[in-house]
Amino acid sequence: MNTHHPVPDLSRARWIKSSYSGGANDCVEIAEAGPHIALRDSKEPHLLPLILRPAQLRALVQAVKDGSLEA
Predict the structure, then answer these.
(1) Which of 26, 29, 39, 50 is the most buried (most CB within 10 A)?
(2) Burial of residue 28, with CB atoms counted within 10 A of its CB: 0-12 exposed, 13-18 middle, 19 or more buried
(3) Which residues form the DUF397 domain (predicted)?
(4) pLDDT tens digits, 30-40
(5) Could you tell me which of 30, 38, 44 has the C-alpha nearest to residue 9?
(6) Domain housing 58
(7) What's the structural domain count of the chain?
(8) Residue 12 domain-assigned?
């Protein structure tokens, strides 16, 4: 199974910051990217974003909530 997805064109993406952001530009931003979701670090917007399917993003958020991510 091919799991590689090309990076979508994000030149017109509307990046949204969390309402929990303190305004210090130190949060994760999210944008819709066609059938995918793009995530980026607001301090490093020039780096390639993480591209996930919606189900993968839900699983990531749940893992963070559960504390089940390994360092």
Answers:
(1) 29
(2) middle
(3) 13-65
(4) 999 889 999 99
(5) 38
(6) 25-66
(7) 1
(8) no
> Per residue, what are the HEC states of the chain?
CCCCCCCCCCCCCCCEECCCCCCCCCCEEEEEECCEEEEEECCCCCCCCEEECHHHHHHHHHHHHHCCCCC
Nearest to residue 30, comparing CAs of 43, 46, 41, 44? 41
pTM above 0.70, yes or no: yes
* 14/51 Cα distance (integer angstroms): 15
Nearest partner of 52 among 62, 44, 60, judged by Cα: 60
AA identity, residue 46 = H
